[in-house]
Amino acid sequence: xxxxxxxxxxxxxxxxxxxxxxxxxxxxxxxxxxxxxxxxxxxxxxxxxxxxxxxxxxxxxxxxxxxxxxxxxxxxxxxxxxxxxxxxxxxxxxxxxxxxxxxxxxxxxxxxxxxxxxxxxxxxxxxxxxxxxxxxxxxxxxxxxxxxxxxxxxxxxxxxxxxxxxxxxxxxxxxxxxxxxxxxxxxxxxxxxxxxxxxxxxxxxxxxxxxxxxxxxxxxxxxxxxxxxxxxxxxxxxxxxxxxxxxxxxxxxxxxxxxxxxxxxxxxxxxxxxxxxxxxxxxxxxxxxxxxxxxxxxxxxxxxxxxxxx
Amino acid sequence: xxxxxxxxxxxxxxxxxxxxxxxxxxxxxxxxxxxxxxxxxxxxxxxxxxxxxxxxxxxxxxxxxxxxxxxxxxxxxxxxxxxxxxxxxxxxxxxxxxxxxxxxxxxxxxxxxxxxxxxxxxxxxxxxxxxxxxxxxxxxxxxxxxxxxxxxxxxxxxxxxxxxxxxxxxxxxxxxxxxxxxxxxxxxxxxxxxxxxxxxxxxxxxxxxxxxxxxxxxxxxxxxxxxxxxxxxxxxxxxxxxxxxxxxxxxxxxxxxxxxxxxxxxxxxxxxxxxxxxxxxxxxxxxxxxxxxxxxxxxxxxxxxxxxxxxxxxxxxxxxxxxxxxxxxxxxxxxxxxxxxxxxxxxxxxxxxxxxxxxxxxxxxxxxxxxxxxxxxxxxxxxxxxxxxxxxxxxxxxxxxxxxxxxxxxxxxxxxxxxxxxxxxxxxxxxxxxxxxxxxxxxxxxxxxxxxxxx
Lengths: 310, 455
Fold this sequence. Notes:
heterodimer; A: about 0% strand; B: alpha/beta; 6-stranded mixed sheet; 4-stranded antiparallel sheet; globular
């Protein structure tokens, strides 16, 4: 006999959650296509297709039936594409996608079993393997729409030459950078959508943004940058994109509300430590990967006490 | 949502987590209770309560009167069984109840003059239930009458009521909570009883309060039942009984959540309400206490609701215990063409069954018939650890961990995550986007834990 409960909330499925993320990504996709034109289109198509094909092949290799219907491979592909520079050649996207799906996800047992965010695993691999094609210079030899997109990324410029650009340009996103990270505005619009749909948690983005605001704010005041430094760190780089779309990946972030606050705080601190003290201008990817690794521990520390357990 | 306030009680009228499934009560809540005529046969399983099975004290072909004891509960946690009809004992056979218990049952064929069930129901809904002469009954007497009347919790769990009210020096009861929450979707029998027989509930509440020497008596109702609240307010005027209007949320009617919601207290894990100085009884149970003490009538009939989109004419019915589910469904016009699942109880915690000869028992609060559209047969996908089950669990557990522990045969992890605190309310399964049958896995996990404890 069918067990209770006999009714389910049918409006809510994993596939719907994935579709929500895709809808949330739309403003960012539009922005990147508008800004980078063919570079963005090419990268999005390459990564999405490569992720779908890799998932299909790797799942077949494990002897399981295909799981493309849940849309998770598409989400990984698009997030991966948006995190790459438009100038990266086709094989960078393909290799990143294969690593993302194979090493990032399927090797752990598929959807829900992986420890690290698959897209970030793929990106970290190509960043180290093709340092030249992914490093600061990759952003500088591109011709796109705005003049700004042929120069250094805002955070590189700030870090290495101390030059800042207008905050409004930074916010609307008419700057250079990885395909999806330039517009803080587009990330906020899409991010608020997935948060309001409860597809992403609100605790993680909020605590990341608060932590970064705190650390960057103190540095700003200490160096009397009159807000320039703070806003570069908030709206520049992949902070908004990472906070809303990468860190909130439910599989690789903690289960409980309390754990999510810790996770966001840790991510925010690591982002600022990497940005301020390392050789890299940007640290969102490494920060999230490091926090992914401590997620099982956070889950263990924040196991809720059952009601009635003093 | 956050604006809900409960005044005059230590609790907030709310509890942590829980869900808001569509309540679908309007299907049956406006139909007045109809009295079903005595059926040709009744089948009385010997275990309709939590505790020890009762012993049959009748033999085949023996003539029994209405209300005669046919099964005696000799153990402390047990309840006697009374015949709801006059007739001749056919046989003592076996039945399987929807909760998959397989046990002996006494079948009685009705013969001769019957009591008019309409009279029983009219007694219940009468406005002349006494409120002032309660003190002539000694607490022990009330407890004894409850025992002899075979009264058990009618909310669904069917725990023998006399056990709750039995004099016990080690446990002091401060508050008697009377549960009229009825948080299960579709069910409306308690709502109807509160609307139509508020005076009987008040008398029963005073009697039960006297039996447990409670300092305070509170009737708890969710705020989706305004008419019941109004009727109870009128009926409790000039008494010490208070009414707590609580937020409509599933599972508000679960005892631990109710105690938290009204009194702000937490029942210790593995403990009973009495550990927090609280006794809890359902409104229908309390009404049968009034009937048992004042009218000296045993528990032979109860109100059930028959509802769901798969029922042609949803109704609330006053039926004899032991009537077959099939006759009740037939009385409501039968099931529709798209009916897909017949459930004893509500859709969240009820049991699906298909044998129409299954009898209504003391603990049957209703029959819910769901259609194909309402039951979901979606394929299970992988857990993405979204944490929605964690945010829904009213016991503050981590359902996905418990379910995985069960799936991978790991009772020690299940124990570490307090699997036995789960009371299987179904919130986690309801919200799961991956459609994982979490509750069923947790049930499996509990069996693993029990098996490990034995070995």
